[in-house]
Amino acid sequence: MLLTLVLISTFVTPIPDQQYHFPDENTANSNFHVVEFSDEGQPHDLKQQQALFDRIKKPDSATAELIIFVHGWHQNAAPTDSNFVAFQTYIKELQQVAPQRNLIGLYLGWRGDKYDPLWLDESYKAEGWIEPLDFPTIFQRKRVSRLVGEQGVSQLLDKLDAVVELGQLKRYIFIGHSLGGSVALHSSKVRVKKAIDLGKDNPNLYLLLNTAVTAKEYKPLDTLLSVDRQKPSMVVLQSKGDFAVKEAFNFLKDGEQAVGNSWAITHDIDKCPRGNCETP
To answer: Is this prediction's pTM over 0.90?
Structure first.
């Protein structure tokens, strides 16, 4: 038994379920915020949300707009995480090109993976093979993504909907990628259905990218139709060439592929082809 534990610890690096960002007295003045959730679907620190709402309610020349991103499998809210760095850069670029808009960025973090094998991650390489070694974590990470969405994130959206209703927040755009799309879907579909049932315009938008969910999980949205001239509430963008979702994800539930030639290149989101911004 001891030998087994030693071997496992040698080849596997555990990823803790932890908080990476700690708000201070200056956080409420920031235009970039982080809210993190545990594997139980609950906030790691409610002070993160308090700082966010303090920023939203600050008197400004323009009502604030919130851009939310929730990451997927293998990612988290560590300051060095590739999704975190990319989203932070994206928000800064948006704020620079549209200074007249009161834009706030919100990164939602959760433990997207429990361990990394051999201290390596080759998901960014077309020929990479290391990352599939921890494929079994997709099973419990999928369950956690749904829990985070249905509990902590849904409760956060309830609060955001309230400030939108009061006119303190113009709207929010919620982007979810991969298992982050699962988080976004399960936190939003009830409110989307409610808006359609009431024939009301929902000022917010839910954007799901290469979402790691089955077709059944969209129910009952698949049976609903927006009323005439009603703005779209949810947009799902799925690449048919996405190997991770189209093929590998099928191992979760045989025959229930998600809508929609390497392990991860076809699944990632990047403004530049294969990460090379010099490619036309």
So the answer is: no
